[in-house]
Amino acid sequence: MKKIVVFLLILVFLSPFAYFIVASVAVNYRFPLLWPEGWTMDNWQQIFRTNNGLFDSVFTSLLISVVTAAVSTSAGFVISKTLAYHTKRSLFNILAYLPYSFSPVIYAYCLYFFFNKSQLSGHIVGVLLAQFILTFPFSIILFLNHWNTELKAVEELTYTLGGSVTQAWRRVIIPMSKSILLLCFFQTFLISWFEYGLTSVIGLGKVHTLTIKVYQYIGESNLGFAALASCLLVFPPLILLWFNRHFMLANNNQYA
Amino acid sequence: MNKNAIPIGLFLMFSVLPLAAGLLYALCYSLGWVGTLNTGFTLTYWSATLRDGDLWSSLGLSAFIALCSTALSVGLGLVLVLGCKDVLQRRIPNYLLYTPLAMPPIIFSFWVFQLMGSSGLLARWLIKTGWVRSIDTFPALINDRAHIGVMVALVLSTFPVFTLLFLNYYQSENIVGYSQLAHTLGATKRQTQTSIILPLLLRKAKPTILLYAIFLFGVFEVPLLLGRQSPRMISMLIHANFNKFNLMDLPRAYVITVIYAVIILSIVWMLFRKK
Known about the structure:
The structure holds two protein chains of two kinds. Chain A is mainly α. In chain A, 75% of the residues lie in helices and 2% in strands. In chain A, strands 1-2 form a two-stranded antiparallel ribbon. In chain A, helix 11 packs antiparallel against helix 12. The two termini of chain A are 32 Å apart. Chain B has two domains: 18-51 and 245-275, no CATH class; 52-243, MetI-like (MetI-like fold), CATH 1.10.3720.10. Chain B has helices spanning 5-30, 44-50, 53-88, 91-98, 105-116, 121-129, 148-172, 175-184, 189-217, 221-226, 234-242, 250-274. At the A-B interface, helix 1, helix 3, helix 4, helix 5 and helix 6 of A face helix 1, helix 3, helix 4, helix 5 and helix 6 of B.
C-alpha cells in the first residue's frame, strides 16, 4: 500500500516537471510519438539571446515580484500593527478579506478605468501598483494574527526600560517578527510571480512577465518555448520549497 | 490628529478604496451614468442582462465547477489522510505533496492541456497500446462540454492543499488522542473515523474550504485554456464582454461584474461576520 501511494504521488506530481524539461529540449516531438526523435539545448541557449525577450521576461517578473513583495510586506507590517490593536480589528480583518477573495482578473477590469485615466496601464509601474493592491490586503491578513498581547507587553517593557520607539522597532519588534516577515515576503513574492490575469489586463500585454510569455507561446503552439518558460516559472518556487516547505503552506493555513 | 489616522487611512486607501471605487464605477457605468455610452440613468442594460440566459448558465456552471472541484479535492484529501496518514508524514511523500504549490494555475492548465488534449500524452499512449485506433476516436477531454479538463486541473491543484491542511490539523487538534479515547470507550475504527475524525477535521477546515470554493468560482487561467466558449465560467464571460469590439457590450460586462461582486462579497461578509 505504502509503495503504491508513493508511486502515485511521484506519477501525479513529478510528471509535469519531467514533461516540461523533456519538451523544452525535444526535437521533432510530433504526434503520435511518445518520445522525441532527438534532443537539443537550443531553446535553453535562446534565454541569453536578447532578441528573444525571454531573459527580459525573467528579469521583469523578478523585478515586479521582489518590489511587490518588499513593499507589501513592509507596509503591511507597519500598518497592521495599528489595525490589530484597534477596537475595530475584526472589521478591518473582514475588509482586508473582501479584495483578497475577489478574482484578480475581474478586479483588474474594475480598476482598469482608473489605471487608464492615470496613464498607468500598459506600463510596469501600473502593474506594480496593481499587484501591490492585490498583495497588500493579504499581508494585512497575515500580520493581523501576529500582533498579540505578548508582543505588545514586550514592546511596552522596552519603553519602561528607557528604550525609544526606533530602538523598540529595531531591537525588539523586527527581530521577534523575523520569521513572519520572511513568510509574508515569500508568499507575496509567489502571488506576484504566479499572477497572470491582472497583469495581462493592466499591462495590456505590453508588460511581458513570464506568465504572459507562457500563455503567448501556448497560443503560438510553440511547445519548446512554452515548456522552457514553464520551467523558468516553476523552478524558483521549487527551490524555495526545497529550502523551506513552511513558507509554501502559510497561504492556506492562515484562513483557519 | 489621531496617531492611528494615517495607518488606517493608508489601509483604506490601498485595500478598500480601489475595490469600492472600481465597483462604484462599474455600477454607474451599468446604469448609464458614466462612460462613453453615457445617456443618463437607465435600467436597460440591467434588464437585458438579467434576461440573458448566458449570465445564468455561466453563474450555474461556475458554481457547479467550484462545488464539484472543492468536494472532490476535500474528499480525496480526507481519503488520503484517513487511509495513508503515516505514509504521507514521511519525508519524500510529504515533500511531493508540497510540489503542486510551486505551480501556478496557468502551468496546471498547460500540463492538463498537454496530457489530455487530442494529441496529448494520454492519446499518444492509448494509440501506441492500441486502445484507441486514431485521433478521431479519442474522446474530447479538454474544451469539452462537461468541463472535465477544467475540473481535473482544479482538483490536481487543490487536493494537495487540503491533504496537507488535514495532516496539520490531525496533529494540532490532537485527533490521535480523541481516537484513542473513542477506542477505549468501545467505538469501532469506522465509528471513530465517521463520528470523531471527519467532523473534527471538516469543522476546523470549514472556512478554508469555503474560501477555496469562492476562489474556484472566479478562477480564470484554467478555463481560459481548458474551458469552452459556451457555456463558460463567469470570469471568462466577463473577460469576453470586456474584449468585444462592440462598445455596446461594455455596460453588459459591468452589470455582470457587479452581480459577481455582490455574490462574492456577500458570502465573504457573512462567512467572517459569523466567525
